[in-house]
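Review box. Two proteins, two foldings.
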Amino acid sequence: MITYDYNFVNVDFYVEYRVTDPIKFLFNSEDPVGILKMLCQSYIRDTIGLYNVDTVITTGKSEIQAAIKEKVMQRLESEDIGLQLTNIRIQDAEPPTSEVQRAFTAVETAKQSADTTVNNAKKYANEVIPAAAADADQIIKSAEAYKESKINEASGQAARFAELYEEYQKYPLITKQRLFYEAMESILPEMKLYILDSDTGVQTALPLESFANVNLGGEDK
């Protein structure tokens, strides 16, 4: 059996009983002696588990015997199977064999190793989960910022288109020409500009590069 301080101990008990009611003994249960045996084994194990190994082997025998006897007697009374416990005594108590002790030590070692592994896993989880949560929060914020920028960009383009359309409705020809010039300026940034006068008898061309490079103050750009 396992003691309170997690040691093994071999204990031999001697149990005495008597039949108090033959009719109940015969008819109230199929195996009254077997019931008594199971009750004794159960309460012996439970009681031994409340004491350390030194107490079980040395000075605690009388106290353990009395506690077990009282529990078994109360249970037999409630079972009402025609039996009465008269005596229960510890005949011998000694440490287990070396093989059992080694097996028990191996079990305890494995249990401690399992506890260590669980604690390490919890520690790792406590370290990783907050970092992952922070990364997820940063990703969400970046996505929201990107979404906001795209919405603002689309809203600006829509507003500009609405403004151009309004101007187009007022002055369709001028607006078309302005859009054409803007498009050509974007497509051909190095294009040279000329003004052609076909009203006169002689066709002339006025280069505008010099004017385009001069501001109102007369300084070159």
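Next protein.
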Amino acid sequence: MYVAQPIEWTDRGVVMLDQRLLPGEEVSYTYTDYREVAKAIREMVIRGAPAIGVAAAMGAALGVLHSSAKSVEALRPEFIEICDALAKTRPTAVDLFWALERMKRRFAELTSRASDLGKIKQGMVEEAQQVHFEKKSTDEAIGRFGAEFMPREGHVMTQCNAGALATAGIGSALGVIRVAFEQGKKLHVLVPETRPYLQGARLTAWELHKGGIPLTLITDNMVGHFLKTAKVGAVVTGADRIAANGDTANKIGTYQIAVLARENNVPFYIAAPVSTFDLSIPDGDHIPIEERSAAEVTHLQGIRIAPDVHAAHPAFDVTPARYIAAIFTERGVARAPYTESLRALATTTHSIAAPSPASSSVR
């Protein structure tokens, strides 16, 4: 099955597929400077919380690798600047900050034990590559856990793009669908377009089509109609940040899908890695919501589609935990009460084989 590769570490630099140009063109760029990586994250060349985390890790490693510092003492303040530049790119996706904190810990370990800059640089590169490898393994585990909850046949719905393009693996929400499909489940995916950036239309539809998975593209204002009439068996989406109580931030439009799913007795699931948890905040009211350019609402591919009026563009919304039937992670499946199950998963140190839906809750 075709799986897109949004980012790779190479001897030439960090290679990213420009997701802004999909599905019309498949163009990749090679970045050799961490500032270029930061700009690529900020300008949505790469997007999706886990993939942003991989990009941030690679950007940090790239900055260290190409530093002209002649000593560890000179490299330390430069590394702080590198991480600060990357941290300022996207405020909502917690994977970005998780990855940078991990790279900071590795930098501290390396510089406390060695003064050889070559070994330090190599260690940072290896850590970034390890982050990427782990994200791929994480997706596969999430997919195995979540696939057990998908119907044997019929419609499922997703939102935005939580596929390979968003995670640098097989996808979180789309990973669940991929694994279920490969297990022989006869699924047909309903894909809302995801205005205003059209991640569903441009990216999710492209990924599913490339992978041979049946889909129907719908506009965002068709969601209620299809949840009511299409006998949808499940909704599964990704997440950018999950608060301690289970409140979940995801692409704008997710909240209304969750409400409509509840109204129509359709289970609503989240598929996300443990690195998406932010147990430092009690609930969704504390999740920062990125406000993107209003031009993305008033214009489509550079063409004005609205008069010159005020437009709002919150890039994410928060779905309250009460609408979420379960959260699929690489370490197991969390269910309410999420204050207990998320903390239990966060402190689990190893993955386990996916159990049946009846026995997989972590409490």
